[in-house]
Design goal:
Distance between the termini: 29 Å
CATH topology: Eukaryotic RPB6 RNA polymerase subunit
Helix content: 25-40%
Number of helices: 3
Radius of gyration: 15 Å
Number of strands: 4
Shape: globular
Structural class: alpha+beta
Strand content: 25-35%
Number of domains: 1
Order of helices and strands: HEHEHEE
Length: 87
């Protein structure tokens, strides 16, 4: 039991790390808009595993689409979309 307690105390919010970009779960309307804009289906989106720490932190579940906004010194602010899948 003591070991479990120690592991719980070590947990922290991965979304606050400087190297982790902003992850947000998109609404159904937002997903439909993005898919229509790019003329693709949801299965054509790149995948992100449901075991990913950022996926767990935002509370996403299988089938959700995440909007990931990265700030790059060379490319500027870029937006990516990923669909959550099982391992």
């Amino acid at each position: 039991m003591a070991k479990v307690k120690e592991e719980e105390e070590k947990e922290y919010d991965v979304l606050n790390h400087t190297l982790v970009p902003k992850h947000t779960v998109m609404t159904a309307e937002e997903v439909k808009e993005i898919l229509t804009k790019h003329n693709i289906t949801a299965v054509q989106l790149p995948r992100i595993l449901n075991s990913d720490a950022a996926v767990k932190a935002v509370g996403a579940k299988e089938g959700d689409v995440l909007k990931i906004v990265r700030n790059s010194p060379t490319a500027g602010i870029t937006t990516y979309y990923r669909i959550v899948r099982k391992e």
